[in-house]
Structures are given as C-alpha cells and as structure tokens.
Design brief:
alpha/beta, five-stranded mixed beta sheet, 5 strands, Cytidine Deaminase, domain 2, binds zinc ion
Length: 162
C-alpha cells in the first residue's frame, strides 16, 4: 500500500463519515484509474428509503456508463467496507478490477452483532464467493478501527432517535 492508495482509503473514511452525518449508513468508496486518478467517489444513501443505494453499486454503474471495458479492468475501487454480495456482483458484471477494502464483511457482522443490531435480510459473503477471479486486498487493520467507530456512532444515533 503506497501513500496515494492510503490517501484513497482515508477519503473512503471521510465519505463514510459524511454519510453518517447525513443519517445514512457509514460507507464510502472511490473509483481510481490505473494511473491513480480519482474518477468518482460515492457514499451510502440508504437513508432515502432505497436500501440498494450502496456506494460500490453506484460506482459500478458509473463505470459502466463512463469507462471503456479496458479502463474498468485496470481500475481499482477503494472502499471503507468490503462489498456486499449485490455490489460485488455489480462490480463483477461491469468488469471492474481490483478492490481494496478497509474492513471485511466478517468484521462488520461481528461488530453489528456486538451492538445488538438485528441481522440483515441479505446473506453476508466474502467478495471471492461472488466474484472468484477478482484481486481483493483487505482488511487494513490501521483504519478498520475508525470504520468500526463510525458504525458504533451510527447505531447509537439510530437508537437515540427511535
Ligand atoms: Zn453493497
């Protein structure tokens, strides 16, 4: 992991924090070209009531509209949390390249269980079970604690509100 890549991961944490502060779930992602240029960034928007509005799904669709097949294959998606099965499938279908995630789905499930959050209606799976050939890196322990803290804050807010 070089400095530029680390910077992309820090940006994911910032986007996840923005999502949290807007009442959405704390997830953020950036789409970067082979030469390191940030093309697009997204954060979670499920507070809208549409539970499919994950950043990784939005970036996959953005890539399909705006990038050639070759550009997609050479691109990297950095993200605060490992892709869910829906987003991993979208990533695979549009032919995007490497994924670097800060915290794994397994970590997230454990954190949410610890917080007493009810299970999700969609099974959590590692990206490799959805898109076996993809190059995937993570978790990144130095940053995972920050992501964990965002989830802690999100669920303490929603409890206070309900
Ligand atoms: Zn997702």
């Amino acid at each position: 992991m070089n400095d530029a890549e680390l910077q992309n991961l820090h940006r994911c944490v910032e986007l996840a924090t923005e999502a949290l502060e807007a009442g959405d779930e704390p997830f953020g992602s950036v789409l970067v070209t082979a030469d390191g240029t940030v093309l697009a960034e997204e954060r979670n928007h499920v507070g809208s009531g549409d539970r499919t509005r994950h950043p990784e799904f939005a970036l996959a669709r953005w890539a399909a509209t705006n990038m050639t097949i070759e550009e997609r294959a050479a691109a990297t998606v950095f993200t605060s949390g490992e892709h869910c099965p829906m987003c991993a499938a979208a990533h695979g279908w549009v032919g995007l390249g490497r994924i670097v995630y800060i915290s794994s789905s397994k970590q997230l499930s454990a954190w949410l269980a610890e917080l007493g959050v009810p299970g999700s209606p969609v099974q959590s799976l590692p990206i490799h079970e959805v898109v076996p050939s993809l190059v995937v890196e993570g978790p990144i322990p130095d940053l995972a604690e920050q992501v964990r803290d965002l989830h802690r804050r999100f669920y303490s807010f929603s409890r206070a509100a309900s």
